[in-house]
Amino acid sequence: MSSPQLRIYPSYDEPERIVRPEPSMSMKLSDLFPILAEAYRGDYLWIEDFADDRVVVTSDLYELVHAFAQCRPSA
């Protein structure tokens, strides 16, 4: 006769951990930008799903974007 196995199930009041895949693809910004711009302008819901995702950029692009954000006139 085998002994019973203990099974642990998460409580329903505990939020589930979201497992996100590691980045595994690369693409040119010139291919990505028009698609993201159109999705943003069109207020597509799926764009919000990725709003908090982090992206890796080269240091020179980071510096340029940071400087542009600081210098552009406010609306």
Assembly state (oligomeric): single chain
Distance between the termini: 75 Å
Following the backbone from N to C, one meets helices and strands in this order, namely HHH
The counted number of beta strands is: 0
Any idea what the shape is? Answer: elongated
Radius of gyration: 21 Å
Structural class: mainly alpha
Supply the number of helical segments.
3
Beta-strand share of residues: under 5%
Blueprint (SSEs and pairs):
Blueprint: H1 29-41, H2 45-49, H3 59-71
Report on this structure.
The chain starts with 28 loop residues before the first helix and ends with a helix. The longest helix has 13 residues. The mean pLDDT is 81. The chain is built from three helices and no strands. It is elongated. The chain has a domain of 26 residues. It has 75 residues and is an all-alpha fold.
Short description:
41% of the residues lie in helices and 0% in strands. It contains 3 helices and no strands.
